[in-house]
Amino acid sequence: MEYVVIAFLCLGILLYFLLGGADFGAGIIELFTSTKNRSRTRKTMYQAIGPVWEANHMWLIIAIVILFVGFPHIYTTMSVYLHIPLLIMLIGIIARGTAFVFRHYDAVKDDMQWLYNRIFRYSSFITALFLGIIAGSLISGHIDSEAKDFVSAYIYSWLNWFSIAVGFFTVALCGFLAAVYLIGETKDEYDKRRFIRKAEFMNIAAVIFGALVFLVAQFDNIPLIDWVFKNTVGLSAIILASLSLILLWYLLIKGKTKVLRILAGFQVTMILLAISYAHFPNFIRLKNGDAISLFETVGPPKTIYSLGLALLLGSILILPFLGYLFYKFQKKEE
Question: Cα angle at 227 between 60 and 19, to 5 degrees?
Answer without folding.
Answer: 25
